[in-house]
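Q: Second attempt. The first request was missing the SMILES, so the protein and NAP are both included now.
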Amino acid sequence: MVDTIGSSHHRLLGKDGLRVPAIGLGCMPLSGVYGAADDAASEDLVRYAIDRGVTHLDSADMYGWGHNEALLGRALKGRRDRVVLATKFGQTQPERPGAPNGVNGRPEYVRQACDASLKRLGVEVIDLYYQHRVDPDVPIEETVGGMARLIEQGKVRFLGLSEARPETIRRAHAEHPIAAVQTEYSLLYRTEAEETRQTTRELGIGFVAYSPLGRGFLTGTIQELAQVDGRRAAHPRFQGDNFAQNRKLIARFEAMAKQKGCTPAQLALAWVLAQGEDVVAIPGTRSVQRLDENLGALEVNLSPEEVPELSEAIPAGAAAGDRYPAAAMAAVYR
Ligand SMILES: NC(=O)c1ccc[n+]([C@@H]2O[C@H](COP(=O)([O-])OP(=O)(O)OC[C@H]3O[C@@H](n4cnc5c(N)ncnc54)[C@H](OP(=O)(O)O)[C@@H]3O)[C@@H](O)[C@H]2O)c1
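A: Got both inputs this time. The predicted holo structure:
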């Protein structure tokens, strides 16, 4: 097990010098998305992660609608300079309970959202600022133009997009260099990500794999429907027949991890990282032990034969159920 992540495990996002560890920390679960989270323990976890070299922290203004950024702000006191702090704007609170989130990519909203994030985070600059969801009513050039002004004002260092399709990425990058694109990417769900990655690679943009553990499914710890908690319960992959079908795929993968002498979570992350030096992963966890376990993936070396074997064990498109519930699905990959 690595003690702290050394420079040999760092990767470059984009061409302009944004270096991050190959494994970062997805902070969304710290806002109770997949079961309750304890704030004091979460702050300790973030500090522990930084001490282990997990210095790429991924947040968003909509994780707990401000809760996640405020928590990070507390955890980062005295440590700000050691991290690459990434957050996102663009999803807005639903108009009524149960309705889908709104999206807003208007330049004036970008400015407001950034100021609010800076305040909650208690920092002067955000290292990597993503548009969380593309707004179909606002040309991407206008949104990215608004984001670029934040760089001119010293409020943001690098720009990112999330769940943007190749054509959108090209238009955005022509307006202002994009350092990173973030998309769901794991053995379980990778159809869109494979397309996106061809474009990001061609343009020299970094690729940040979110939900690299399939929202926990690829860790082998979710064996029964009764274990599915929080927002995950609404995700098609964890429902009824889909769950049963996906469990079968994952059982095959768990057996491969056993044979390799690592945990399923480590194998899932090693597979993501084996896709290229332009790819980094941001697994989420509330637990110090799991963070340690996940870092062990850096020591799992996959041979040139093992990578395609894993890809064939869970072929692209084989997972049952869309990546998101229907309304949220409509807002991704635009
Ligand atoms: N851009 C976007 O639209 C978007 C969407 C989703 C997520 N994200 C980002 O990507 C990050 C990662 O995605 P994610 O959190 O959705 O999913 P994930 O990383 O695929 O899985 C996280 C889940 O796996 C569990 N887990 C983690 N390590 C484990 C281990 N070693 N053994 C067993 N269980 C383990 C965690 O539970 P415990 O907490 O109990 O360990 C958590 O429930 C998020 O935190 C967020 O920052 C971005």
